[in-house]
Structure formats: structure tokens, C-alpha cells
Amino acid sequence: MLRMAIIWIRMAGALTFLSWRFFIPQRLYMRITMLIRLIFIACAFALLACDSKVVAPESDNALHQNAPAERRQVNVYSARKEALIFPVLKQFTEETGVVVNLLTGDADALISRIANEGELGSADILITTDIGRLVRAKQQGLTKAIDSEVLSQHIPAHLRDPAGHWFALTTRARPIMYSIANVKAEELDDLEDLAAENWRGKVCVRSSSNIYNQSLIAALIIQQGEDFSLEFAKGLVANLARPPKGGDKDQIKAVAAGQCDIAIANTYYLAGMLASKDASQVAAAERVKVFWPNQSNRGAHINISGAVITRHAPNPVAAKELLEFMLGKEAQAWYAAHNHEYPVRKGVEPSEILRSFGTFKAEQINLEKVGELNGAALQLMDRAGWK
């Protein structure tokens, strides 16, 4: 009898695994989910009623296998690669006993999946990059407001939603990067100066479709106005050394190769190259240096990686516990050392490589508004001819 129950449960686990790994239209997904829950699970527990032992379903993406059925769990949808988050989740499980089911994927696709899953969704937490995506999830009604003294104490007010829908886990800076061979630091000042004629044909930046650039321009709109931001975008486009292509690392490599003298990129990309085991990446990164713009006024542009608890989270209590754990000193220190992003918790040092870039004054603006203006920023970039 027990063997039959295990077979039923394994079949349920296999189908559940498929529902986690492949996109299924909402109606079909709902029907399959109902069948899984009502038929397989019901049958399994009916069979187990005749036996005193409890056997948990096997899960391919659980951090702990064969966990007792009564054990708590939390389901995490993460746009961060597994290697960049798994050790923190593993430590959480070891300290609390809460099983973490981790699903990684494309940031925008995960938001769409949560929306499609609706009330029958599995996600408890969405971890993603950029304020634009966090605000989009909130605007679509996919998030749950929570009240946490731990999060409020350790996350500065400008790095969390006043209503408690999203919270920063790290900050990431997007400064100017320049060729050590061709540019002197004294030639640089504010980000806006990159639109000046003296930088004609010397700038590399990625596409306007990139959300990091959309948030950069959204922040500029808030602080300098739409007309000023449009003129800046037009000037920047006129100064491009080549049509936008590739990611931030590609812009850094282009500077190193002499294709341009200036790039706009997130610091963790340069840090990752410097820490790489690939000698060619290290060599390229060593030809480039960080310059912190706008230090005499508003500060350098920053963004965040962050998390939300989903509106229909099946395990909201465990989800809150996990978010609070990720703001602990140990978790923040691990993030800083391995992801090369800046901790949000005071008292936790950035990685040695980030410290080598120097200290800087950062923007302190309404990130919620930055996220809300992402669409307007993209329209402005289109008007400026930013491909």
C-alpha cells in the first residue's frame, strides 16, 4: 500500500515539475493544477491513511529532498541566476528548516507567469532586478503589502515601497566608465556632459530596450525635467561610436578595445570581469576605470535588485521570514562578496573590488516614481533616436 502511495506521489511530483518548468496557458494550467491536487494528492493521502508513516512528494527543485509532509516551504521565482542566490537560500533552509523551492528564469517572463497563474499560482516570492520590474509587478496587482520591522529597520526608506509592496535587497550603481589610455578623469564631470560635442563618436551604450537605461532616463526626467532629458538623449545618440548593441560587458570591452572612449555600465559587470578566471576579461577590465558623475549635485544613478511577496502567495509567513533573513548581516555580506552589488544594510562592507572603485554620492530619489516613468522614458528615448 505504501509503495502504491509513493508511486502516486511521484507522478504528482513529475507533473508539478512540468508545470514549474514550462509555460502553460492559464486555463490549461488551472485545469492541470486542479487535477494534480484533487486526483493525485487526494489518492496518495487516501492510500497513506492505512499506514502510519508519512512520505513527502519528491521535488526536483527543492533544496532538501524527502522532507516530512508537515514541513514548511516557500516557493521562490528568481530572475537571479541560481549560483547568485542558491547558497543564501540553502543557509536559510539549514537555519529554519523551511524548504525552499527555487525556479529561475527570465525576469519579464517570470512576471508574466505569475500573472497567468493567478490565484492558483505557486510563487510566494519574486526576486528580480531593476525598480522598473518591481513597480510593474505592483501595478499589475501581483504583489502583497507586508509590514516588517526587520525590513523597515535595515532598508533605507528610499529603497523600499512606502506601502510595503517591494523591498531592495541590493543596490547597483550605473556610472561612467572610461578608457585609461585615452581619457583623463579631469575631463569628466556630470553624466549630462556626455551629450557635449567633444565626445562625438566616443560613447558606447546599450540599447534603449534595456530596462537599466530606461530607469536611468526616468531618473533624469524626475530630476531635470522631460525637455532637458530629451536634449541629453539626442546629444548622447549623436555621440555614439557605434549603434547600440550587446550588454554592459560588451560596452566595457568596446572601451578596452579602443572602439570608444566612454561607456555607461553597471559596476558589478566590471567587477565580475576583474574577478573572472578568464584572463582576456581581466585584461580588458584593467584598461577601464570607473568615474563617479554628478558628485557636486544630485549624485550618481543607482538602481536595485529586490523582492516582492506575491498577492496569492500560498506561504506568506515563510516568505516574510525569508525576506528578513536576506537582510541579515551574513546574507548581505555573501551577496556583496559574490554578486559585487552594494549591500542595503548599513554596516556591511561592499566587496574588495567595489571598494577599489572608490566611495561615491548616490541619488536619493523616489524609486517608485522611477519605475512608474519607465514607459515615458522609453518613449522619450525613441523620440531621441536611441535605438
List the helices and strands and how they pair.
Blueprint: H1 2-21, H2 26-48, E1 73-78, H3 86-96, E2 99-104, H4 107-117, E3 125-129, H5 131-139, E4 143-144, H6 149-154, E5 167-173, E6 176-179, E7 203-204, H7 211-224, H8 226-238, H9 248-256, E8 262-264, H10 267-274, H11 279-285, E9 288-291, E10 302-310, H12 316-326, H13 329-339, E11 342-343, H14 352-356, H15 367-372, H16 374-383
Parallel strand pairs: 1-2, 1-3, 7-8
Antiparallel strand pairs: 3-10, 4-10, 5-10, 5-11, 6-8, 6-9
Helix pairs in contact: 1-2, 7-8, 7-16, 10-11
Describe the structure.
- The structure is a single chain.
- The protein is an alpha/beta fold and 387 residues long.
- Among the domains are: 1-59; 173-301 and 354-383, 3-Layer(aba) Sandwich (D-Maltodextrin-Binding Protein, domain 2), CATH 3.40.190.10.
- It contains 16 helices and 11 strands.
- The chain has helices at residues 2-21, 26-48, 86-96, 107-117, 131-139, 149-154, 211-224, 226-238, 248-256, 267-274, 279-285, 316-326, 329-339, 352-356, 367-372, 374-383, and strands at residues 73-78, 99-104, 125-129, 143-144, 167-173, 176-179, 203-204, 262-264, 288-291, 302-310, 342-343.
- The strands form 2 sheets. Strands 1, 2, 3, 4, 5, 10 and 11 form a 7-stranded mixed β-sheet that branches. The chain has a 4-stranded mixed β-sheet with strand order 7-8-6-9, with helices on one face.
- Helix 3 links the parallel strand 1 (73-78) and strand 2.
- Helix 10 (267-274) packs across helix 11.
- Mean pLDDT is 86; it is low at 1-31 and 33-69.
